[in-house]
């Protein structure tokens, strides 16, 4: 004969997850949305190389009107020719420095109304803070963070004035170093962590205008910039980062564009990034009640795994310093 207490416990174990799913379905915000790409104007900063160029190529292939902005006119011309030859689609190019608000504003005005803005520019100078000049710190903060403010502020009035053009999107290219601080990334991490606060507050400000914010967290990406960065990294940075593999720019671009189209707020690019996103979900928006369920249920286990990573990193740091003191 079946024990009634056991039957009740089994029913309770079944109903609790279902009740949690129903609750999350009712409370997750913003509501799910889809951002179309075909026949829309996609404006990409840092679009002459790396992830930006891969995104420009992919969006052009999907039928978007594409504009790219970067500092170097020569690199922009090369990017334009590459996209034209491979897709048959012409893209508009704008040479401007995102640190210059007036120059960015003129480029946005010349480009015309923007439906999807991808704020992708980024610079990185590795090094311990003690050894780094404040000019290098300002350079990263000015390009990565202030440049993002400049770009969004310039584009936002036109994006809000879109009439009957469907959902819009503002996507910010952060980094996994914008989810967790790493030795040798002090200034860079600060500039990328700042994008999260910008994105979370901005989403609340623009949701009534049917504009959806996405925050993309790529890992190390196989670009010319990564090659130069790796040469200059502190030895400890390389030791800590060696467990994380690099992705190709085209792979990151696909993940990023899928996230933009689904209006996802947090867009991880690999499995490690997914775990980081769950571990750092905090008070960030979540459109998917299924993903919210995973975040709630897995939070404790992933926190234990995160502490394991921290143990490994600090062990490596102490070991490295101990060896160098002896030599």
Please provide a written account of the structure:
- The chain has 327 residues and is of the alpha/beta class.
- It is 57% helix and 12% strand.
- The protein contains eleven helices and nine strands.
- It has helices spanning 4-27, 50-61, 73-87, 101-111, 134-160, 186-206, 224-232, 235-241, 249-261, 271-279, 289-326; strands spanning 41-45, 65-70, 92-95, 116-119, 168-173, 211-217, 221-222, 247-248, 266-268.
- The strands form two sheets. The protein has a seven-stranded parallel sheet with strand order 3-2-1-4-5-6-9, with helices on both faces. A two-stranded parallel sheet has the order 7-8.
- Helix 6 (186-206) links the parallel strand 5 (168-173) and strand 6.
- Helix 2 (50-61) packs parallel to helix 3 and helix 4 (101-111) packs parallel to helix 5.
- The chain is globular and about 75 Å long.
- It starts with a helix and ends with a helix.
- The mean pLDDT is 92.
Outline the secondary-structure elements.
Layout: H1 4-27, E1 41-45, H2 50-61, E2 65-70, H3 73-87, E3 92-95, H4 101-111, E4 116-119, H5 134-160, E5 168-173, H6 186-206, E6 211-217, E7 221-222, H7 224-232, H8 235-241, E8 247-248, H9 249-261, E9 266-268, H10 271-279, H11 289-326
Parallel strand pairs: 1-2, 1-4, 2-3, 4-5, 5-6, 6-9, 7-8
Brief description of this entry?
The chain has 327 residues and is α/β, with parallel strands linked by helices.
List keywords for this structure.
single chain; 327 residues; alpha/beta; seven-stranded parallel sheet; two-stranded parallel ribbon; 11 helices; globular
